[in-house]
Amino acid sequence: MTLEELDETLPNGLHDAQIKSMTHDYERAIVKLEVKILVGLPDDALQDRFRYRDAEIVFRRVLFCSVELPDNERIIGHSGIIWFKFWRMEPGVLPENIAKSIPPETLCYSLYILEWESQIHIAAGDMSFSWFDTDTATAAA
Question: What ranges do the domains of the chain cover?
């Protein structure tokens, strides 16, 4: 699975998705993102339009995970869930010697963190997605 494939299968894609937590297990080469996924649709009843479900995105065979420093001083001292957008890592993000050593089938993503105005970069062999719950969703706060 890829983030693009996941984006295609979800009711709203990863639009308005949020990261609740991120863990990096260096020994097992795994990065886990605990996320909230918007599942409410514009045509749903008003009380259901902004429903979210908790899920997990797991990157395996991680080559690296790099978190850029925030570029927005307003986030200093403020905790909470962060909104993200994703795209394939753009050329020039990695130094040339690193970029050349990454196998071509590697999933290389940049997650833009809106509150930080900076990115998390992840290179991994594969990824998976699973819901934490079976069918419950919560309303956005």
Answer: 3-136
